[in-house]
Please model this.
Amino acid sequence: MNKRGRPVLGAVSGFFLGLFLGLDLLFFGVIPLDSIVITILPLLGLVAGLVLAFVAPLGRPKTSPPSG
Model:
């Protein structure tokens, strides 16, 4: 199986992105403390990071163009 990208790094990075986004929203008073969003955002970040890591690298051609 040819793995593309770095799925573990993407999952960990996505988790921390969701965690800190939820904490920022909490500290700035956008969402209350008992909101389920604080729990859902890290999980969504984890899944999004994993998915983006599997489709990475975005936009890079499969073969290099011939030099001329």
